[in-house]
Amino acid sequence: MSRVRRIGTTRLDLSEIMKRGALAVLSVLAVLLPILKINFPGETNELVLRDIQLLGGAAYLLPAAFLCGLATVIVHGMRVHARFADIAGLIIAFAAVSRAVYTLGSSVREDATAVDASPQRLDQLAQVSLSYGSIALLLVLFGALWQLRKSWRS
Predict the structure, then answer these.
(1) Distance from C-alpha of 137 to C-alpha of 27, rounded to nearest angstrom
(2) Could you give the CA distance from residue 137 to residue 116 in angstroms, rounded to a whole number?
(3) Residue 82, CA atoms < 13 Å, CB-side half-sphere
């Protein structure tokens, strides 16, 4: 059974559609699911990628880039732009991961002067941890690296 189908003059690679479709679905999940969990004394708050503390409205570029990558498989005229779509998706995924790591790291970092003193600001009382949306974001990052490596070879 061949993985390449023809619809008229258009050649569709089903395995490529499945890989790029999975990246598109994971990128949508990375935007919708919470990335970081912030625990204040007495309450819990979750940050999603589209919150202003992380990427804000630029988070919607992540699924847009991977949906354009999916379109490069289907639309013949966009196939020459597949590598550009892969690079754009990788850059946005890397920015999202680095911003989440920065937010997580800045909450864990301790000031040397405030070790013995009691915390006076509310953000020093918060504990930040990863949430289940971070799994989708990391899978998008590694999938984008894998896809770029494959498209760079061809």
Answers:
(1) 7
(2) 37
(3) 21
